[in-house]
Design the sequence.
């Protein structure tokens, strides 16, 4: 070996290599220059070694994660994916959801402020409806529903986008009743104005200032880890006592930036969340007005006539307004399961699960289901072991926020067709949740006819079993038509807000996903 009189450089210099020639120190290099060069080279080597080490770690993690189970939750917006994710979290990493309890107040308060505004707007638009006797608009139905792969229901009445304000008012009132009614309404509006004003601040808090165009009724989208904005100093990522992990996908840096920015401004040194405490006191002071509005005969009439259609979560929180608006309110698990906030992008949740004496790491991907979010799913298809596809069977009388001409069941069927026929997903274990069965039951009890929205349903009975079987047959047919690999479709009727029932379904589904995973691993 040739020893150089000077300390070796980090670069090995080959006399024939033109790059080495450039890097070679000048023969006239002074001692001071030499020291500087050596210091810089040592620093460069340190950085380079750190990068190598990081790359090695990433490679190891990637190799190991190849052995993990990857489960995608897919389905249209509002189908229940994030709610199902919360049920997984409750089952396999319960303390993490417990730690988030307080941060859910922002969502729940938003889930109250927004419907209160919609009720007032509907009252403005329709007045004290007592005239037309008719219920909601009628729809033309496309008989193509019988062929799900091309199924499409035709447009509802022009101008409708789920917002009653966009429909024309046809209120006719006796003048004296009208003035009483208007006085009442004006009074309520005044009393509720602080809450209405708070809506925008809540939206800003939840979205971190990100405005997503095409979000339909003006709903707020959140990125994974939004809870960090309200967690009063607790971290939502990293390991915790139970070994469960929660990680962010793709958007970590912007989330962390906004989290600390907002945290500094809005959390007092005593740990009080200024904005949320302020809104809690507004709610407390107008709790009776909200109840009065919610129970008002005019509002009941608008709901009965279906001029005002509130989503299940809005009804849930307005029904529970006394409890939720009380002082010192802390959300219950049931409240958290009912809270609604739209997912943006893909959120990855990681936890360990022990099945048949083996502990395996699971990656659960909860995706945003709105049309504008669906392109973000594709990078996750390559690696997926299993999919749970959620289709809300209660949605037969609803239309997409993103496209008010598309019936939600149609959209679900079309999306399911895309998933079943996707080449990247051909070998993936496939589970179908026909979800929101409790909401379906409720709609049928209220006499909301399936036939009115889906003519092909015809005169079949307005009974739960018949309706569910009808929808199930359509999904099964889609699967059969796109099933060269003869894969099994596991179907469950679910209401994912029901913790007890969902727990047993999750256990059952996890078990079958794991068996398939082991079988595949044995073949590799
Ligand atoms: N009653 C009832 N409500 C449900 C059920 N499943 C979901 N929900 C509610 O429906 C709303 C929407 O559910 P999410 O889980 O947020 O829907 P998502 O599929 O994640 O929606 P995106 O994030 O927009 O794609 C929430 O308020 C849930 O509480 C169910 O089976 N029954
Ligand atoms: Mg979601």
Sequence:
């Amino acid at each position: 070996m040739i020893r150089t009189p000077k300390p070796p450089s980090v670069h090995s210099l080959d006399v024939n290599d033109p790059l080495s020639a450039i890097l070679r120190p000048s023969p006239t290099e002074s001692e001071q220059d030499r020291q500087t060069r050596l210091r810089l080279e040592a620093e460069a080597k340190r950085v380079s070694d750190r990068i190598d080490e990081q790359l090695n770690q990433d490679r190891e993690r990637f190799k190991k994660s190849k052995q993990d189970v990857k489960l995608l939750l897919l389905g249209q917006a509002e189908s229940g994916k994030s709610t199902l994710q919360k049920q997984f979290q409750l089952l396999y990493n319960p303390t993490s959801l417990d730690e988030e309890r307080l941060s859910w107040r922002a969502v729940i308060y938003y889930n109250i402020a927004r419907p209160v505004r919609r009720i007032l707007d509907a009252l403005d638009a329709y007045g004290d409806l007592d005239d037309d006797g008719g219920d909601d608009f009628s729809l033309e139905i496309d008989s193509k529903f019988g062929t799900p792969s091309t199924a499409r229901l035709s447009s509802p009445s022009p101008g409708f986008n789920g917002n009653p304000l966009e429909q024309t008012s046809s209120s006719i009132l006796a003048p004296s009743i009208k003035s009483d009614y208007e006085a009442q309404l004006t009074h309520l509006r005044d009393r509720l104005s602080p809450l209405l004003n708070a809506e925008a601040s809540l939206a800003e808090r939840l979205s971190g200032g990100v405005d997503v165009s095409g979000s339909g009724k003006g709903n707020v989208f959140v990125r994974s880890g939004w809870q960090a904005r309200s967690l009063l100093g607790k971290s939502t990522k990293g390991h915790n006592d139970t070994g469960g992990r929660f990680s962010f996908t793709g958007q970590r840096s912007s989330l962390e930036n906004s989290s600390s920015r907002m945290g500094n401004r809005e959390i007092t040194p005593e740990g009080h969340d200024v904005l949320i405490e302020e809104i809690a006191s507004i709610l407390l002071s107008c709790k009776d007005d909200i109840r009065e509005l919610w129970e008002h005969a005019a509002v009941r009439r608008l709901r009965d006539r279906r001029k005002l259609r509130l989503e299940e979560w809005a009804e849930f929180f307005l029904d529970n307004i006394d409890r939720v608006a009380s002082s010192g309110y802390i959300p219950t698990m049931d409240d958290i399961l009912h809270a609604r906030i739209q997912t943006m992008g893909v959120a990855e949740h990681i936890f360990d699960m022990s099945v048949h004496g083996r502990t395996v790491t699971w990656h659960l991907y909860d995706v945003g289901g709105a049309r504008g979010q669906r392109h973000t799913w594709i990078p996750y298809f390559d690696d997926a072991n299993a999919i749970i596809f959620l289709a809300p069977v209660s949605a037969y009388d609803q239309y997409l926020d993103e496209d008010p001409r598309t019936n939600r069941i149609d959209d679900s069927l079309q999306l399911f067709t895309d998933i079943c026929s996707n080449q990247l997903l051909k070998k993936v274990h496939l589970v179908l949740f026909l979800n929101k069965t409790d909401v379906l039951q409720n709609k049928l009890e209220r006499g909301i006819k399936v036939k009115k929205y889906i003519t092909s349903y015809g005169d079949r009975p307005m009974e739960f079993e018949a309706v569910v079987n009808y929808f199930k047959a359509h999904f099964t047919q889609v699967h059969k038509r796109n099933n060269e690999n003869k894969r099994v479709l596991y179907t469950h009727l679910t209401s994912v807000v029901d913790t007890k029932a969902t727990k047993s379904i999750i256990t059952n589904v996890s078990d079958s996903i794991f068996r398939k995973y082991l079988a595949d691993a044995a073949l590799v």
